[in-house]
């Protein structure tokens, strides 16, 4: 008698090989009906799990891991949810690990995700270049970096908004509406994307013959009370400041509050633009101009490329840049 | 020669039994130094993994799963992050699954988390009563429900803010500052907590001799354009409405925008209070009064009780209610 293969089981059950594998391993998703059907066919054919099924068992968990620094950040949670949605439609479950911007924690969660046998990994943002140490791994896991410079670009697909373009356009807009001393407000802890935004800001100053020096950049730290102190000190030193591009909306909103308490009129005296175009921009006083990242496109690109890398593990090394859009509201109006 | 036990290895290595188990199984967290030390002791003593170590291997993954409907919601992401922080300090990794308020997805993720061998589970919010079907599970997993009514309270620990008290106090405040026709604004998709808030609202009306009827409750649906239509229709029918308790801050902020566009003055003509006290309440026009949930206390209670249940699986059946605080801002001022 010809040995029954997992393919035969799939054919006889009217489902895919992947589904048969999931039922055999009781891992991933299938209906109770499917389970019954597959188990019935297995029984009828006297199928015994062979090497091929064991390979499937070892190599496929239908689970994707996501490392994210801070799920309370709008941009991150939006991208993560959109990725999860797409992957689920394709039969993959997503498990999310929140690293709290802690390097040690990130390494630990990398180990955990490997231990759970994820088929692929998406790494979002972070301060340092990302490197994946495979020395203790049971298998190489394809991974995608979003807004996180990989140490070795040849090992991954790198996806990012065009932060440079966004900051450049926002800065040129500030200059166009009359700012003579625009500044860039950024956290001391700088991410890959913040660095790109800073260089877009610098380049726009340069193109418009403005000087970039200490008076062009306001460094901030959490908590808000510290930001307030730093902002007041900066405005004491550089009272001609009349435009701010903030590295994200949360910072921009905090600055709106601080400047309001310092009796500045926005946008009459100081114009402010944020980054991310989070929903909150519509509720602030005044509504906040912001650079919109295309989270749907980023999520779609990341999910598609990860699934592609899982099938073609050698096709790494790509960099994909997603365009951004400047959304103008009252905070930067003439 | 006496057989060496995992306890002996732990003693000789100067680490806990749990750490020895993690090293043996290469699962969870330990330093490179610890790993070397433990492996050296194992080699020196000629220790062979025995039944006890295998039990540890089968039963402990040092991973906790969290099911959450929507990580972009401030309350959820805040609680999840605080739980993760506490559990990590105790040596546990947390994996988060975002169910998108989709029942089928929730069931699938329950299976996935069981497949990954989590030691415990925290279920946050959701529309339906939560029940955990163990029939296909390899082991019983202790679980905690936060803001999610369990189908069988004897199987779990139930943790919740005192939504009833929060809504009651907020409603009494609206009445105290002069509202003669306060309403409750809620999504048609009602969670466990929204139901509690509604009953707090009703009870405050009753205590103050106000009638509760169709004119007391504004049902809303996403997206915002639909909310706008529903709100306009409601105010056409009930133009005397002069106070709103919204079921969460996101809804309250959307209503502030809609009412502003309808030319209402807040708080002069209509007073508004939200729920959750998310950071956004400080940035709205006007700043939003809100009922603050004690996310630190909720997270701490959930993490502690889950770890306790993992050691004492029969000590279920508790209900823990965490007090809330009404934070007053300009949106409900006299």
Description:
The structure is a homodimer of 334-residue chains. Chain A has helices at residues 6-13, 17-25, 32-45, 51-59, 74-89, 103-115, 163-176, 192-207, 224-237, 249-261, 295-311, and strands spanning 63-68, 93-98, 120-124, 143-146, 157-161, 182-187, 217-220, 243-246, 271-276, 289-293, 319-322, 324-327. Chain A has 334 residues and is α/β, with parallel strands linked by helices. Chain A has three domains: 6-59, 434 Repressor (Amino-terminal Domain); 63-162 and 295-324, Rossmann fold; 163-292 and 327-332, Response regulator (Rossmann fold), CATH 3.40.50. In chain A, the strands form two sheets. In chain A, strands 2-1-3-4-5-11 form a six-stranded parallel sheet, sandwiched between helices. A six-stranded mixed sheet of chain A has the order 7-6-8-9-10-12, sandwiched between helices. In chain A, helix 2 packs across helix 3. The longest helix of chain A is centred in the C-terminal third of the chain and has 17 residues, at 295-311. The first copy, chain A, is elongated and about 85 Å long. Residues 50-57 of chain A have low confidence and may be disordered. The interface between A and B is large, with 40 and 40 residues.
């Amino acid at each position: 008698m010809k040995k029954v293969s997992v393919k035969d089981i799939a054919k006889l059950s009217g489902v895919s090989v992947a589904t048969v594998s999931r039922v055999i391993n009781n891992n991933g998703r299938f209906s109770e009906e499917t389970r019954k059907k597959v188990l019935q066919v297995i029984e009828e054919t006297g199928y015994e799990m062979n090497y091929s099924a064991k390979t499937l068992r070892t190599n496929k968990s239908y689970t994707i891991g996501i490392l994210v620094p801070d799920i309370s950040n709008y941009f991150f949670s939006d991208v993560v949810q959109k990725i999860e949605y797409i992957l689920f439609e394709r039969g993959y479950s997503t498990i999310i690990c929140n690293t709290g911007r802690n390097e040690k924690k990130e390494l630990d969660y990398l180990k955990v995700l490997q231990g759970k046998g994820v088929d692929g990994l998406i790494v979002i943002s972070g301060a340092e270049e990302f490197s994946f140490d495979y020395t203790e791994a049971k298998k190489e896991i394809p991974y995608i970096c979003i807004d996180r410079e990989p140490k070795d670009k040849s090992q991954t697909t790198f996806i990012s908004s065009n932060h440079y373009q966004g900051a450049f356009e926002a800065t040129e807009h500030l200059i166009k509406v009359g700012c003579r001393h625009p500044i860039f407000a950024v956290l001391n802890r700088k991410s890959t994307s913040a660095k790109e935004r800073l260089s877009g800001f610098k380049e726009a100053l340069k193109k418009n013959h403005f000087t970039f020096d200490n008076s062009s950049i306001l460094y901030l730290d959490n908590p808000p009370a510290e930001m307030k102190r730093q902002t007041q000190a900066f405005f004491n030193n550089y009272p001609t400041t009349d435009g701010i591009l903030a590295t994200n909306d949360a910072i921009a909103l905090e600055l709106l509050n601080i400047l309001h308490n310092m009796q500045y009129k926005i946008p009459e005296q100081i114009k402010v633009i944020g980054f991310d175009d989070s929903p909150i921009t519509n509720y602030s006083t005044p509504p906040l101009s912001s650079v919109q990242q295309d989270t749907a496109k980023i999520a779609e690109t990341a999910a598609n490329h990860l699934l592609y890398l899982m099938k073609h593990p050698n096709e790494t090394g790509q960099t994909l840049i997603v365009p951004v859009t400047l959304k103008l509201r009252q905070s930067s109006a003439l």
